[in-house]
Each structure stands twice: as structure tokens, then as C-alpha cells.
């Protein structure tokens, strides 16, 4: 009887622990994303560096329609936007303080 009780409690504990995984933050972008977006629709750009909850670089574009779209970080458009955002950021900050300190999240109006 005690063995059956122990097995049932162990199963409940395992189910509870596995169910908690849904509380963990995950990547916003579920796939690679689009390669191009019409620049007229773009209102804001967010660059999320790899972190403990998402191991890959994510580029999220906010459209004037209110939608959020993931941009493929490997695309030429994304590379150009990241370069421009970093250039704008370094121009607006003191370069001696910004050197070597990448922000986890860089927000730039585009």
C-alpha cells in the first residue's frame, strides 16, 4: 500500500515539475522570420541579443498596423538595420562608456 502511494505521489510531482516549464520565458520569434519588410510600414525596431531564455539573436519589427514581425538576422536587410542602429547608438552615447558594453535590448526608432 505504501509503495502504491509513493508511486502516485512521484507521478504527481513529475507532472507538476514538467508543467512548470510553460512559465519559462522563450524566444519571441519561433522561426527564422522574414527576409524583407516594406520600410514604409516600419515604426520601431528591437534587437534582442542572445540570453539565458533565448539563445539566438532576434530582430523584432513593429509595423504601423500594430503587428510585430520577426526579421531573419541572416538577411541583408537585418544586417543593414543592425549596423545602422549600432552606429546611431554609438553616435548618441559617449564612446568611452559604450565600448565593450553591449545592451541586452537595443530599441531604436527607425
Description of the structure:
The chain is an alpha+beta fold and 110 residues long. It has one domain (25-109): OB fold (Dihydrolipoamide Acetyltransferase, E2P) (Beta Barrel), CATH 2.40.50. It contains three helices and four strands, in the order αβββααβ. The protein has helices at residues 2-19, 76-92, 95-98, and strands at residues 42-48, 58-63, 68-71, 105-109. It has a four-stranded antiparallel beta sheet, with helices on one face. A hairpin with a 4-residue loop joins strand 2 and strand 3 (68-71). The longest helix is centred in the N-terminal third of the chain and has 18 residues, at 2-19. It is elongated, with a radius of gyration of 21 Å. The model is unreliable at 17-23 and 98-110 (pLDDT under 50). This is Chemokine (C-X-C motif) ligand 10. Residues 91-110 have a biased composition (Basic and acidic residues). Residues 21-85 form the Chemokine interleukin-8-like domain.
Instruction: Name the CATH class.
Output: Mainly Beta
Largest sheet: 4 strands, antiparallel
Quote the beta fraction.
15-25%
- Runs with pLDDT <50, length 5+? 17-23, 98-110
CATH topology: OB fold (Dihydrolipoamide Acetyltransferase, E2P)
As a percent range, the share of helical residues equals 25-40%
Tell me the CATH architecture: Beta Barrel
Query: Helices and strands, in N-to-C order?
Result: HEEEHHE
Amino acid at each position: 500500500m505504501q509503495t502504491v502511494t509513493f508511486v502516485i505521489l512521484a507521478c504527481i510531482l513529475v507532472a507538476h515539475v514538467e508543467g512548470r516549464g510553460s512559465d519559462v520565458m522563450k524566444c519571441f520569434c519561433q522561426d527564422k522570420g522574414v527576409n524583407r519588410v516594406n520600410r514604409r510600414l516600419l515604426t520601431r525596431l528591437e534587437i534582442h541579443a542572445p540570453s539565458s531564455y533565448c539563445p539566438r539573436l532576434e530582430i523584432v519589427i513593429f509595423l504601423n498596423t500594430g503587428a510585430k514581425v520577426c526579421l531573419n538576422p541572416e538577411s541583408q536587410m537585418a544586417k543593414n538595420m543592425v549596423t545602422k542602429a549600432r552606429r546611431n547608438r554609438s553616435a548618441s552615447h559617449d564612446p568611452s562608456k559604450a565600448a565593450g558594453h553591449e545592451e541586452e535590448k537595443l530599441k531604436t526608432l527607425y
